[in-house]
Amino acid sequence: MYKVLLVDDEKLSRDSIATLVQWEEHGLQLIGAAKNGFEALEWVDKEMPDIVITDIKMPVMNGLELIGKIKERRSDTVFVVLSGYDEYDYMSEAMRYGIKHYLLKPCNELQIIDVLSEIKREIANANREREFFTKLNNNFTRVLPQVKEQFLRDIALTGTYNQRDFEEFMAMFHIQAQTFQLVLVQFGESCGYLEKFALKNIAEDLFTSEKLYLSTVVEDSVLLLIQAMAFEDMATILNEVRDIYKSYYRLELFMGVSGAGGFTAIRSMYKEVQDVLRYRFYFTEGCMLTSDDVQVTSKASWQVDFNASFEAIASSVKAGDVNDVTHRLKSLLDVFEEHRMEINEVKSHCMELYMIVIRQGQLPPSSEKMFQVVTFQELDTLHATFEFLRSISIEVAKSNYQESSSIQNKMIASVIQIVDEHLGNPELSLTWIGKELLYMNVDYLGRLFSKETGVKFSQYVLERRMEQAIRLIERAGDLRVYEISRLTGFREDTPYFSKVFKKYTGFTPSEYKRNWEEGLRKPL
What we know:
524 residues; alpha/beta; Rossmann fold; Alpha-Beta Plaits; 5-stranded parallel beta sheet; 22 helices; 59% helix; sequence-specific DNA binding
């Protein structure tokens, strides 16, 4: 049974969640409901909860500060953040803490249970993985490989060994070389120790002991200390390592290669490959990078008005202009690729643009759309980030276009109905309809009418009046020309009506009437 601690300064919210969930039915134990961060820390020290549900915005100690203090005490505690629609800044900060579980206030029992069930599965998986690692480590009977790994980790991460220590270890490991290079390999997605251990073994087999001296797993990466060699030779081996590994595990690899150096340079070489791989975000998956590949433009040498760019994209999304949205996002992508901004800064800009885009829809964004912003933390490349941003932007733009088209179609249908009902009204005009009936901008209404019907409004009305005049001549033969003129909206201006009628039909009204009557008298 997993222990759960609830933290919320709002008593109503705290009591509601505490009583809403049938904790024990779901394998959970609510150990306490704290009203502030200090009280929560007391519960943590006493009960060591597995899960902490905390409000993100609280006085004295907010949820983020509380999370930081709990992480210092218990690193494997899983957190669920309670937040509101207006707390994006807190949510963005929470992501930097690695928080990925959120509940949007107010929330119901089903939403709470869904999140807690997912966390239970994660904890169970993590426990199984820890058990697996324990069994695997217990099978390591030889001490030397472990010593080698620890030595490389220590020298790369801390640089604590002196020259004498180094010489002793090199003699123990039978390493005579004085010049080395470091290769740091990162994975395209999160994986377990077994996958990292497999990569290390493949690299050891392909490089052989004469070229690869030490290898180890460092956090989520694999670190290789190899013989200094020409880049082409190294690339050949590393590409083979990548291909063999991918054939088994279907995981992409990002490789950073340092320059050459001796013992005293290993620490700085490690920092070099770390810095290089910080820019893997800008490269396709499966890349191999050196410091020459990531020359970064100084911020002082360029300026980008992101606010203006974001506003233009938002306007295109709102207008439903998919082509313009795609074009503007591509331009923004080019800016990031050209200037190689720091990765977290890029993701921060992308998350800001995402929140702007989803608010351009006809309806307020759903909670699902709000929390999809977390996806940015999981994307490994700039192109994947922009593809996600593009898909969401186009989805909203298409929805807006369809809604706008539906409204426009209804509007033009109304105009056509008004024309049909007022053909005999001499005042019938686009200005009259726009100002007196639909209360719309006349110029916009005219452009919209032409776009939807393919003809100008004045031409459409003229054709409808002429067709009406023809019907009156054919079906009401006793009507005089001045009467038809009045019934079709020309008042009793018979000369002008006759002129327009002849231009439209090729005959005067009298000629058309005579021809029509003669045609009726002819025998079949």
